[in-house]
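TA notes, week 10

Several of you asked for a full example with nothing omitted. So below is the full record: structure tokens for the whole chain, then the designed sequence directly under it. When grading your own attempts, check the secondary structure regions first.
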């Protein structure tokens, strides 16, 4: 037995020396413990790049903590409880402290193990503050929460008013992808010995896309500020097959495991604005993502409760389509390209996640929990708190409209307007019937018709239902939809 007074348990999404329980840790008296549980590595069909990122980031963090003078027990065990019990057996059962977990499941586990928690500071909004806001709302409009955040956190504010006189610049943004555009250079990351060891253990050939260190994450932040922030706003909703990251920051994985903190990301963006390096419509758009959407989604996860993930308001029960697990199982250019991007690097930006992947799951009535599991397993930045509201609420409207008042359903014409995928596709986005009809276009109308009764009670769906009532070829379209759904089930559409 040695002289440690406390154990600081660092979960794999709390990898920060200055936040969470580490902010209170003392190298002289505390033992830092990380547990790499075999169960965590194998309990799901994880994307190997994601596993690599999680494990290598944790091992680098352990190294950084040692460099800061801490004694670190990085333990490999069958499960987290077994690992922790082995630590207690070796070092004595000391009071064990962690930051508040980021999911209901982990909160239960920590409680069962008797791990004490300190309030998480990985977000800018205390959970109690968000709950207080949400309890007073009739509809949970993100924009209202965001404006309060701007004032409360005093970000881009000028004597109580929004800088440049407007809260948002959406009208100047949301441009389709420009033709012949020189997309900014991308940062790559060199693999060190720890990376190589983890890649070997997982039998995975890691890409050079994702940093696995605090230093690499800081480099990614600087790269974003220098090369991408200025163009972020206008092109934030565009999607193209010319370039897979456009002006997006690629910072979500680092924010979600603790390698970066939201505060430093915001400070860097605002500093760039103050130095005149980026225009207000881009800086505001980025700030909105971080202090608005990210905080709102996290707050809503806790507000909506654990059972929210089980919602299936549209009674969608199709099994996961084969194209999600094998991009060659579709002829749809948009879906094939995007799933292939996910296969390569475990990431695509917001618009493909929403407009292509979730939209396809919604229109095909894919079971929400099967789709949620697939998203959760395949994205580098996935965590329960962020996937559940984004998929169940925003993506597939399985929550009966609690988060978004209407489903995000789009046909091929809209995808054609916002992306460049249709040019190289065997299907025609303008057609809804016939062999060459775009599956999205056919299924969009079929979906509205299947849920006609439910949507007739939603005044925000009036325009779409009027469009549906005007279709002269609905019987033919319903037949085509059957063929399309059967083809998607077989992986031949
Ligand atoms: C169906 C669906 C699933 C999603 N799953 C995840 C997920 O598992 N993990 C995740 O971090 N984001 C998720 N998002 C949100 C968003 O797509 C990603 O945050 C973004 O694509 C990450 O890339 P980026 O860092 O380049 O983002 P940028 O476009 O550069 O945006 C900056 C940051 O804003 C934050 N942000 C923006 N929108 C959201 C949002 N809706 N929810 C939470 N944070 C947001 C992220 O931290 C992101 O890094 C999901 C969105 C949808 C529609
Ligand atoms: S035609 Fe339809 S399936 Fe093909 S790329 Fe366009 S939207 Fe996707």
């Amino acid at each position: 037995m040695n002289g440690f007074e406390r154990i600081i348990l660092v979960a794999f999404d709390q990898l920060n020396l200055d936040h969470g329980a580490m902010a209170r840790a003392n190298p002289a008296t505390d033992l830092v413990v990380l547990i790499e549980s075999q169960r965590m590595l194998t309990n799901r069909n994880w994307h190997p790049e994601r596993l690599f990122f999680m494990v290598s980031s944790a091992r680098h963090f352990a190294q950084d903590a040692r460099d800061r003078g801490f004694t670190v027990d990085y333990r490999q065990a069958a499960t987290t409880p077994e690992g922790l019990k082995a630590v207690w057996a070796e070092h004595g059962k000391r009071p064990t402290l962690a930051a508040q977990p980021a999911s209901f499941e982990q909160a239960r586990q920590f409680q069962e193990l008797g791990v004490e928690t300190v309030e998480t500071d990985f977000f800018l909004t205390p959970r109690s503050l968000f709950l207080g806001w949400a309890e007073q709302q009739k509809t949970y409009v993100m924009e209202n929460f965001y404006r309060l955040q701007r004032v409360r956190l005093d970000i881009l504010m000028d004597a109580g008013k929004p800088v440049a006189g407007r809260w948002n610049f959406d009208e100047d943004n949301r441009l389709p992808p420009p033709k012949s555009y020189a997309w900014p250079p991308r940062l790559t990351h060199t693999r060190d010995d720890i990376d190589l060891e983890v890649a070997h253990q997982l039998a995975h050939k890691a890409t050079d896309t994702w940093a696995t260190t605090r230093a690499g994450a800081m480099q990614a932040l600087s790269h974003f500020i220098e090369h991408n922030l200025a163009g972020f706003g206008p092109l934030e909703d565009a999607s193209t097959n010319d370039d897979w990251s456009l002006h997006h920051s690629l910072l979500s994985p680092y924010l979600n495991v603790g390698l970066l903190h939201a505060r430093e990301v915001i400070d860097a963006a605002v500093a760039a604005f103050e130095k005149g390096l980026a225009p207000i419509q881009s800086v505001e758009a980025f700030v909105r993502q971080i202090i608005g959407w990210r905080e709102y989604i996290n707050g809503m996860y806790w507000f909506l409760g654990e059972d929210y993930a089980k919602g299936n308001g549209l009674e969608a029960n199709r099994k996961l389509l084969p194209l999600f697990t094998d991009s060659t199982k579709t002829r749809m250019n948009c879906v094939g390209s995007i799933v292939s991007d996910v296969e390569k690097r475990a990431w695509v930006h917001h618009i493909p996640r929403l407009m292509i992947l979730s939209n396809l799951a919604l229109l095909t009535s894919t079971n929400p929990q099967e789709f949620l599991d697939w998203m959760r397993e395949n994205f580098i930045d996935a965590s329960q708190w962020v996937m559940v509201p984004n998929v169940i609420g925003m993506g597939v409207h399985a929550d009966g409209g609690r988060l978004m008042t209407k489903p995000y359903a789009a046909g091929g014409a809209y995808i054609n307007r916002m992306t460049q995928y249709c040019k190289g596709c065997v299907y025609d986005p303008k057609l809804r019937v016939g062999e060459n009809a775009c599956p999205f276009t056919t299924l969009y109308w079929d979906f509205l018709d299947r849920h006609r009764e439910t949507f007739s009670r939603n005044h925000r769906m009036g325009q779409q239902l009027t469009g549906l009532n005007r279709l002269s070829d609905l019987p033919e379209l319903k037949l085509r939809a059957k063929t399309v759904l059967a083809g998607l089930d077989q992986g031949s559409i």
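The CA atoms of residues 3 and 29 lie 7 Å apart. Use that as a sanity check on your answer.
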